[in-house]
Design goal:
With 210 residues, this protein is mainly beta. It is built from one helix and eleven strands. It has one helix at 2-14, and strands spanning 26-37, 46-60, 63-78, 82-102, 105-124, 131-149, 154-175, 181-190, 193-194, 197-198, 201-209. The protein has an eight-stranded antiparallel β-barrel with strand order 1-2-3-4-5-6-7-11. The chain has a two-stranded antiparallel sheet with strand order 9-10. The termini are far apart.
Length: 210
């Protein structure tokens, strides 16, 4: 717990210093993340994997704006009752505010707007509960992170993804047993910061060039 609070505190304090990047630079970046969420001691966890890439343009020593593309896959498998998997692709734009902490170490806060398409498959021991669905989603989220400029060209970073996330989803579902279809829409607010612990952490890299 103390280490987790220190991680957040260092980032907040770091936003009072100067930045790491120079206007006119471009930043090619990527992130790889894996998270596990478990709701009780009986059912198995849901595992989620994602990979993303983006291209940013340094507008000032304190700000980078850019576009990103990502892919995510999640799976759940209870061999006794049910299983599910989903695939999604997202595209979006982002603004990243950067502040120096000390030397080559810096903190950043990113705000992202994105939209995407997904497909999901759910299988249940009761055939009438099995279904397939697809839909689209639009949303916004913020990420808090810490980075280290290894050299002039390379930057390594660690990010707490979805510090807060707003999402609207429209879904079309088809039931296996009856072929009946339905349409649903939903709005959700969520956070990767749960009970002051780091839940969704991504490790990434960046290539800086002119």
């Amino acid at each position: 717990m103390k280490r987790q609070l220190l991680f957040v505190a260092v980032l907040v304090i770091g936003f009072n210093a100067s930045a790491q990047f120079t206007k006119g630079e471009k930043v090619l970046n990527g992130n790889l993340s894996f998270s596990t969420s478990k709701y009780d001691d009986v059912n198995p966890p849901t595992n989620r994997f994602s990979i993303s890439a983006g291209l940013g343009f340094v507008k000032s020593e304190k700000k980078i704006v850019g576009a990103s593309l990502s892919y995510a896959y999640s799976t759940y498998n209870n061999t006794l009752t049910s299983s599910a998997n989903s695939n999604s692709v997202f595209a979006g734009v982002y603004v990243q505010n950067i502040k120096n902490i000390r030397g080559n170490l810096f903190g950043f806060l990113s705000t992202n707007l994105n939209s995407g398409y997904y497909k999901q498959r759910y299988l249940d021991v009761n055939p009438s509960s099995s279904y397939s669905s697809n839909g689209f989603t639009v949303g916004a989220n913020s990420n808090l992170g810490i980075g280290y400029r290894i050299s002039k060209r390379f930057v390594a970073n660690m990010t707490l993804t979805n510090l807060i996330s707003l999402q609207y989803t429209q879904d079309k579902r088809k039931i296996d047993a009856s072929n009946a279809t339905s349409k649903n829409s939903s709005f959700s607010i969520s956070s990767g910061l749960t009970s002051l612990s780091l839940n969704n952490t991504a490790i990434g890299f960046s290539w800086v060039f002119q």
